[in-house]
Amino acid sequence: MRAMAIPAFLLPELEDVVQHGSPEKRVAMLRRITSLFLDGATICRSEHVALFDDVIGCLMEQIGTKALAELARRIAPVPNAPNGVVYTLAGNDDITVAGPVLRQARLGEPELTHIAATKGQAHLLALSMRANLSEALSDILVARGDGDVKRSIATNHEARLSDNTFATLVAHAEQDNVLAEKVGLRTDIPPRLFRQLLMQASEVVRKQLLAHAKPDTRDEIRRILAK
After folding, report:
1. What is the pLDDT of residues 3-26, one digit of tens each?
2. 219 pLDDT exceeds 80?
3. 3-state secondary structure labels for all residues of the chain
4. Which of 121, 83, 122, 125 lies closest to 105 in space, CA to CA?
5. Spatial separation of the C-alpha atoms in residues 220 and 36, rounded to whole Å
6. What are the angstrom distances between the C-alpha of 105 and each of 17, 53, 79, 83, 129?
7. Which of 38, 133, 147, 213 has the most CB atoms in a 10 Å sphere around its CB?
8. Average pLDDT estimate for 49-59
9. Given this model, what pLDDT does residue 177 score?
10. How many CB atoms lie within 10 A of CB 217?
């Protein structure tokens, strides 16, 4: 089966909507074109994805936030979603638009880094939920992020954290019991920072870590506290 492109019969209507259509007609056509792409996304060749990128990009202009947010939700999980569309959605200042693609869509490290370095806390929180976050990106999120972002990063066990980032989290965890527990349950925390975390943790946090830790970790916690 050949990859799907935009059918010829739809082209005149599409051109008319792009040039003269009302916002309502643009939204309706955007839904049709998006559905057409999603139906054939798994077999779309790169040239067809590029075509959808151009067409959807044109239709996105002059439409409201609600329609853009709907587009973001639909397209974010698609591995070969059009790059231009994804980048435009990710950079939107409205988190209902940017959130789905920041959490899930395929984005390059430079684009992710730029967003992490320039956008607000809601965007940082969405980024903190991505799978396989790099150390460099995690560093920026922890450095710029508020308490919610730090807790989210600590909970994201697929995020790779540098020693410096762990040190920052441990330092903040002294005043944040929830963060302390989340950081303490990470299996990749450096031993010296784990010891520091335990020594500064409240009795409540220590009990929580003991309750949820694996047996070998539980024994280590007891040894550290005994000293």
Report:
1. 456 777 677 778 878 787 788 999
2. no
3. CCCCCCCHHHHHHHHHHHHHCCHHHHHHHHHHHHHHHHHHHHHCCHHHHHHHHHHHHHHHCCCCHHHHHHHHHHHCCCCCCCHHHHHHHHCCCCHHHHHHHHHHCCCCHHHHHHHHHHCCHHHHHHHHCCCCCCHHHHHHHHHHCCHHHHHHHHHCCCCCCCHHHHHHHHHHHCCCHHHHHHHHCCCCCCHHHHHHHHHHCCHHHHHHHHHHCCHHHHHHHHHHHHC
4. 83
5. 56
6. 28, 15, 7, 10, 11
7. 133
8. 90
9. 94
10. 16
The span from the CA of 95 to the CA of 72, in Å, is: 11
Structure token pair of residue 181: 């527990």
Average pLDDT over residues 143-172: 97
**191-217: average pLDDT:** 83
Tokens of 186: 């990470």
Least confident of 93-102, 152-161, 197-206: 197-206
pLDDT score of 18 = 77
| Six-digit token string for 4 | 């799907």
Tell me the two tokens of residue 111.
């684009």
Token pair recorded at residue 72: 């973001």
Quote the CA–CA distance of 144 and 162 in Å, as a whole number.
15
